[in-house]
Amino acid sequence: MALTMQTSDGRRRGRQSRRLKAVAGFLVTVITTYLGLLAVTFFIGRVIPIDPALAIVGDRAPQAVVEQTRRALGLDQPLWYQFWVYLKQALSGDFGVSVLTTNPVVTDIARFFPATMELATIGTLIGALIGIPLGVLAAVKRGSLADQLVRVVGLIGYSVPIFWLGLLGLLVFYARLQWVAYPGRLDVVYEYDLTPVTGFYLLDATMAGQWEILWDLLRHIILPAALLGYFSMAYISRMTRSFMLNELSQEYVVAARAKGLSETRIIWFHALRNAAVPLVTVVVLSYASLLEGSVLTEAIFSWPGIGLYLTNSLQNADMNAVLGCTIVIGSVYIGFNILSDLLYRLLDPRTRR
């Protein structure tokens, strides 16, 4: 009996040791990735031919003023020391002051990022709610006309430039049909009537019961969100089709059909349920892609999100804002990759072994 207890304790300690090693490896990977992101962002900012000192004082400033500004910014120090200072500031959440707005970059990002998150959230919902059923339909009707149509629609979503579709959408739905509001997030008439609480205007207007403002917000967001949703739908439908084709070829589907289960139950309650495990990861990564890839969409629709803020900062050589936005966007993408990995392990017990 003592030998059995020793064996059991040994196994328990072995499992704990493996778990600690897995957690330690996971943390090392995350830290290394984040440090790599900071390093690449910093050195790209130093390599490009833009002088931060000139961006602050202007091209016509005397050379003595430029040199004084460079010393104040620490640009006269060795590159490795500049990175060390930048690393300490970035890890403490200090990305400097924006030349364009004269506000701390963190303050600007906190103001603009909710607009991007609101746009990407609705776009992902549109993409998932349409893309998953289309992917299931294409898999069930493999080789049929419906399958070909779904694949063509997805291919167009991958191939057509987003700025071209955005301009076409404005021409048709705003200029011609006038179904949507002009570019922007909110009509100037309601600009001072809505009090931002969370930064998510749709939620703020709903909580305040300002239904007229909510309708105006929906008219502004529907077109850019639908555009992002289309690109998300193209990716999600393709992956759903692939997962469903794999599940429908499994033996448990053959056994379910042999038992006389209806095709609807087999598809939606068995095959799709098993395909939902990797599909959750796909949706999460699609959401992350919309958060970090909505720069062109925001520029076309004058959407006051982090993408438009980043574009304006690039045009005005505001490197503090550019580097801060890059780090935040990269951090969001890293975070969602970690989340998708954790969700996959949570939903599929086989991956924990």
TrEMBL record:
Keyword Ubl conjugation: no
Pfam short name (any one): BPD_transp_1_N
Membrane topology: Multi-pass membrane protein
ABC transmembrane type-1 domain ranges (all copies): 113-344
Membrane-crossing residue ranges in chain numbering: 20-44, 119-140, 152-175, 217-236, 275-301, 321-344
CDD domains for the chain: TM_PBP2
Subcellular location(s) of the protein: Cell membrane
Keywords: Cell membrane, Membrane, Transmembrane, Transmembrane helix, Transport
Protein family according to the UniProt entry: Belongs to the binding-protein-dependent transport system permease family.
Protein name as it appears in the record: Peptide/nickel transport system permease protein
